[in-house]
Amino acid sequence: MAEQAIAEVETFQVTLMIRRFDPEADQEPKWVDYDVQMFGTDRVLDALHKIKWEVDGSLTFRRSCAHGVCGSDAMRINGRNRLACKTLIKDLDISQPIYVEPIKGLPVEKDLIVNMEPFYKAYRDINPFLIASGTPDKERLQSPEDRARYDDTTKCILCAACTSSCPVFWTDGQYFGPAAIVNAHRFIFDSRDEGAQVRLDILNDKEGVWRCRTTFNCTEACPRGIEVTKAIAEVKQAILRGRP
Amino acid sequence: MSVVIETPNSPRTRNQANWEKYGWLFMRISGPLLIVLVFTHLVVNLVLGEGIKAIDFAFVAGKWADPFWQYWDMAMLWLAMIHGTNGMRTIVNDYTERVKVRTALNTSLWAVCALLILLGTLVIFTFDPCPAGAAADLLPSFCPALTS
Amino acid sequence: MVTMPAGTLYRGKVGMWSWVLHRISGVGIFFFLLVHILDTALVRVSPEAYNAVIAVYKTPIIGIAELGLVGAILFHGLNGLRVIAVDFWAQGTKYQAAMFWAIIVITIVLVAAFTPVHLARVFG
Ligand code: HEM
Ligand code: SF4
Ligand code: FES
After folding, report:
1. Nearest to A216 among C1, C10, C96 (CB)
2. What pTM, to 2 d.p., does this model score?
3. Are residues C35 and C84 in the same domain?
4. Does the residue C101 lie in any domain?
């Protein structure tokens, strides 16, 4: 071992317990443990990479940007929904194994990958696009105050951490879920948009906002720090009022 | 080159009326009313005076001699039963998957609710504080002395 | 290696646990209410029948259970107000955790104050 003048980045041994499922071999998911040597600067995503690249190439998970932008790698880490790329290993209790599971309430396809289609379906159902009449020559202007009204809900990256943390969504998967409501909120309170009534009507559904039980799991899960429960409360109030 | 997207997605329309909004509102209106009704009920019956020790037929008869408590208890009965049953309906809807099971449970819930509201209301308003032939020491003090 | 048959329990925070408690207390109170309407209806049968059944409420075991019932009603009622605050008060989502702990403290204090009074009557 060479003595080095520069302080080394500390390394440590961690155990990952990963819930794995191979649809071609397994009847049910199973826990598999991996010991890996990681750096203090590493994230859970780096540990998954290390396992996939050096230990078991069949480990399957989604990631794209690796920097908290694309929303591909939401998973349940130590019992809570997180982005693997935004979760530093040193922030977790490494004296214990780190449990990594797929997000809950969506069909598992393989290992940490779930079928996101039901989640996207709810998103599409709330009309996630600007509905505005006329064809302006320039951009549609908006005051800073009007823009601020829905600023929080523009930050969503559709990672599904919120929807798959919701106990109501877990029951039957029919509930629209927090993410769809957040993205409806983004347009309902946009002063340029003219489709608020339509979206309020869509969410005034048996499976709409009234199923929310304010458990705050969504707000705590959101990697973008969106106040999800608050956005849902604002949509509920808008439906009662009959306008945004 | 510009792309024109015409009505990229047709709005989803609901084909059935739904009462979820009203159920949700009812829980939030009946809740605070129940706080007043139920918490007062607990204080009057379990804290003041002799509390649980004092509760017997004469105690109930004494309370219901006053229409104020008759209407109080009726309001509590109605609101608590409807609130509780609607809450149970939410839970049934959450945890049942098959439509048949769900319908059966919800129908039973509302049947029980209607039955108990009817029974309770009848009991409150057809109540006789001094039933003929009952032992005098079980009755409230205002009953006329029995002669039979 | 299989160490846990199912997935882990979701580690939600006070919002989730307040909902679990609200739901359990709501169901508990509901079933008690059904019984309570039926036992009260016995006043229409006869003073003896009513008094005989009410005597059960004064036995030690049921007497102690009543403390749990009172606690469940207090928690459910106060947490119901918290849920309403989250839905309608602009600051509700910000203070939801603080409100939860306030409710727990109030419930414990009130049950603790009621316990000696009530048990003295049950055992007295
Ligand atoms: C004492 C005053 C009460 C208040 C302030 C209150 C408040 C509430 C509120 C606001 C909800 C809706 C919760 C939500 O949407 O997440 C609720 C649900 C419920 N309540 Fe009450 N309630 C009270 C008394 C009762 C009583 C007496 C019963 C039983 C008969 C009861 C049974 C239920 C049930 C079963 C639910 C459904 C729980 C769920 O969906 O998770 N409540 N209550
Ligand atoms: S609201 Fe937050 S948690 Fe939900 S999908 Fe969007 S970014 Fe993910
Ligand atoms: S990989 Fe893109 S958000 Fe984590």
Report:
1. C96
2. 0.93
3. no
4. yes
Q: Is B127 left (phi over 0), alpha (psi -120 to 50) or beta?
A: beta
- Per CB-CB distance under 8 Å, the chain A contacts of B24 are 210, 236
* C81 and C121 co-located in one domain: yes
Asked if B42's CB is within 8 angstroms of C47's CB, the reply is no
Is B21's CB within 8 Å of A239's CB?
yes
Q: Where are the domains of chain B?
A: 21-129
Tokens at residue C50, please?
Answer: 């009513």
Chain C residues in contact with B134 by the CB 8 A cut-off are: 46-48
For chain C, how are helix, strand and coil distributed in percent, rounded to 5? 80, 0, 20
Same domain, C114 and C65: yes
> Taking CB atoms and an 8 Å limit, are C93 and A99 in contact across chains?
no
What the block records as the tokens of C112 is 């603790």
CATH of the structural domain B21-129, one choice from 1.20.1300.10, 2.60.40.10, 2.60.200.30, 3.60.140.10? 1.20.1300.10
C46 touches chain A (CB under 8 A): no
Identity of the residue in B81, B87, B134 whose CB atom sits nearest the CB atom of C47: B134
> For every one of its 244 residues, what pLDDT tens digit does chain A have, with 9 covering 90 and above?
455 567 777 899 999 999 999 999 999 999 999 999 999 999 999 999 999 999 999 999 999 999 999 999 999 999 999 999 999 999 999 999 999 999 999 999 999 999 999 999 999 999 999 999 988 888 899 999 999 999 999 999 999 999 999 999 999 999 999 999 999 999 999 999 999 999 999 999 999 999 999 999 999 999 999 999 999 999 999 999 999 9
- Tokens representing residue C89 in the block: 């008060």
Q: Does C53 share its domain with C98?
A: no
**Residue the block writes with tokens 């706080």:** B35
The answer on C103 and C88 residing in a single domain is: yes
Identify whether residues C100 and C123 lie together within a single domain: yes
> How many folded domains does chain C comprise?
2
Q: Which residues of A touch B12 (CB under 8 A)?
A: 125, 127, 202
C122 touches chain B (CB under 8 A): yes
A64: phi then psi, degrees, rounded to nearest 5: -135, -70
> Which one of A29, A33, A216 has the shortest CB-CB distance to C15?
A216
User: What's the DSSP call for residue A22?
Assistant: -
Closest CA to A184 of A201, A167, A166: A201
- The chains found to touch A (3+ Cβ pairs under 8 angstroms) are B, C
Q: List residues bridging with C80 in a β-sheet.
A: none
Say if residue C69 is in the same domain as residue C51. Answer: no
